[in-house]
Predict the 3D structure of the following.
Amino acid sequence: MLKKRGIIWTAIILAVFLIFYFDVQIVKGISLINNAVLNDFFLGITFISSEIIIFFFLTSLFLWHEHKRKWILPLWITLGTVVVISFLLKVLVHRLRPFQIGIVSILPSLESTSYLIWNFSFPSFQSMLAFCAIPILSKEFPKFKYIWIILASLIAFSRVYFGLHFMSDVLVGGIIGYLIGVGIIKIENKTKFGERIWKRVF
């Protein structure tokens, strides 16, 4: 099992380095498939990927089942950790977005002054946010996890499609988000802090 995990993580790390090398070509290649239908579709995905929508949807999902409510606090901590780590990495790495360095053009409706202040390209916050929920959903809603994996993948791809991120931004963002989710689950299973706090408050 450990050997298999080692092989998987080695492959992932190699893929990340390879994608970093071809980042510009990938963004340019994806821009060639841009059309009105795909634009509308991925604009919808971009709307769904709003942190507010994801937060309220996931919270509602766990509130819906009485015995799963103990995972609400760990879920919130996961989402909060993603926000903090994403912000710190963006400021530290300071990588400009593809459209900012003229590799591709961007739809006027997606342009924002926030992109020019602090909200840099690496890593993709939306990818981190979408993928960090997969470990908890896989544990508590196994039938729902595949739908969420597809949605998370579409969210990640939409960022590259619109020239808001490089492929490496969304890949690394997804990996970091997923690992944060796994880490919070391990802490919760070991300490039961979410369960204990939920019982005290409610």
About this structure: The CA atoms of residues 132 and 179 lie 7 Å apart.
